[in-house]
Amino acid sequence: GAVVSQHPSWVICKSGTSVKIECRSLDFQATTMFWYRQFPKQSLMLMATSNEGSKATYEQGVEKDKFLINHASLTLSTLTVTSAHPEDSSFYICSAISAGGVPDTQYFGPGTRLTVL
Amino acid sequence: GENVEQHPSTLSVQEGDSAVIKCTYSDSASNYFPWYKQELGKGPQLIIDIRSNVGEKKDQRIAVTLNKTAKHFSLHITETQPEDSAVYFCAASPGTGTASKLTFGTGTRLQVTL
């Protein structure tokens, strides 16, 4: 149980294009999802908290117009990197908290590796 | 905000030995402390967690201890096996229900040698 998937697992795009990453909770409903980015050999940095049906809350320093987050249903959140540039290349990971499960426990997806050329 | 420090950054042990990873946190309001294992190219996997009303928790070869007074918690892995090799992250959260955010430590790269 508590499986989170991400799609795609990896993506390569040209500078200036937009990329959408999907995060799905497969066997539970998630009222809250989180988006992280992780650079090589570094820790996870929280980008934003996403609640179903409301606007995402972004961490300080994260550009909300560049990283668009939509949490349209209890099982799906999307992250769109707009006008991507090489410095946006990173490992993006989502997590979800089960609405009816153990409080506070975050289950992570497998991550999406983004490479911007 | 919360600050979590983690030591050591790398740890090499022989198969069968024990491994200990330590974390300290700064915010006394934190009361939920999970540990994650991350293999190369994959997302973090929850291996054990502890809440502030408990001092120790064990699950087979893995145990976590918490000292709220000193604001530190530790991960203990006994009888290590090669498949335990990975990066381990500690984290802390105020645990305020569904809105709780995790602050992660910097990670420990564990290498279990034969």
Provide a descriptive summary of the structure in words:
The complex is a heterodimer of chains A (117) and B (114). Chain A is an all-beta fold. Helix content of chain A is 0%, strand content 54%. The termini of chain A are far apart. By secondary structure, chain B is mainly beta. In chain B, strands 2, 4, 5, 9, 10 and 11 form a six-stranded mixed sheet that branches. A five-stranded antiparallel sheet of chain B has the order 1-3-8-7-6, with no helix packed on it. In chain B, strand 4 (32-38) and strand 5 (45-51) form a beta hairpin. Chain B starts with a strand and ends with a strand. The mean pLDDT of chain B is 94. Classes of the chains: A mainly beta (117), B mainly beta (114). Chain A binds chain B through residues 4, 6, 31-32, 34, 42-46, 49, 51, 93, 97, 99, 103-111, 113, and chain B through 32, 34, 36, 41-46, 49, 89, 93, 95, 97-107.
Write a short abstract of this structure.
The complex is a heterodimer of chains A (117) and B (114). Chain A is an all-beta fold and 117 residues long.
